[in-house]
Amino acid sequence: MAAAFPMSEVDSTGLPDARTDADLVAALNAGDPSAFDTLYGRHRDWVVALAFRFTGDRDLALDVMQETFLYFVKKFPGFTLTAQLRTFLYPAVKNFSIAARRKAQRLQSTESEQQHLANEPAPSAPPGETDSLTAALANLTEDHREVLLLRFVDGLSLAEIAGATDLPLGTVKSRLHHALATLRRDERTRGYFE
Amino acid sequence: MNDMQPDRHQPADADLEAPAKFVAALRRTQNQAVFVPPSVDAAVQAAAREHLRQAAPDRIVWVSFARWAGLAASLALLLWLASPAFKRGTAAFAADDVNRDGRVDILDAFALARELERGAKPSPAADLNHDGVVDRRDVDAIANKAVKLAKGGRS
Question: Regarding the domain delimited by B92-155, which CATH topology (the fold level of the hierarchy) does it fall under?
Answer without folding.
Answer: Type 1 dockerin domain (1.10.1330)
